[in-house]
Amino acid sequence: MNKAAIWKNVKEWIYILFGFVVVTGFLYQPFKIPSGSMIPTLLIGDFLIVNKHCYGYSNDSFRISTFTFPLPKIKERLFAKALPQRGEVVVFRNEKDEDNNYIKRIIGIPGDKIEVKDGVVHINEVPVELKEDGEFSNLENDEYVIYKRYIETLPNGYSHVIIKRFAFGEGHLDNVGPFVVPAGHYFMMGDNRDNSKDSRVMEAVGYIPLERIMGRAEGLFFSSSCSLFQVFDWPFSMRFERFFTAIV
User: Which pLDDT score, from 0 to 100, does residue 25 have?
Assistant: First the structure.
């Protein structure tokens, strides 16, 4: 292979890499779900797309996996189109756990008073609406665990599914607060209410500053119940019904 051909191949790879950095840094970025804190909305092994431009850009927007581009400090979000709203599922950096990206649902916005009483979220002293929605079965340690499903409706009308393994009031985070969300911060919770380390745990997560939010989770494009290294299990592990579905 002559020098011209080698240089052509190198340039093609440079263009591909540049395109990947631009898309994942500025527009949309794929993420894999590693834990069960957002079950049943998100399952372990789901791959999703995060919209990185909907809230504008902060320094933490320019983060790929655990690498953040070393840019000058951005004081205010650039090109912000909207602010995060209750009910939206977002990816963010946790100041108390810098090495990992977190994904949770926004429950409280700046100024909200959040309190959990017997497992029911109260926002500004008003309990959210809950409606029973059957059961959810989840395989854990080779055994199926049955959860109760509920539809939770937030004050802005946003409805989503949550699950409870224990009866209301018996979960270890079923009675916490009150918390008053500071200006410029958000209160996050997982949909798997009895198995989520979130803003209810102040020493581990707490309130999340706006600049730490990387983007909004939009939809799933792939889902598998096995590791990428378990090649021979791929044909039997695909959750095709979850491919190309919206996150609500």
Answer: 53
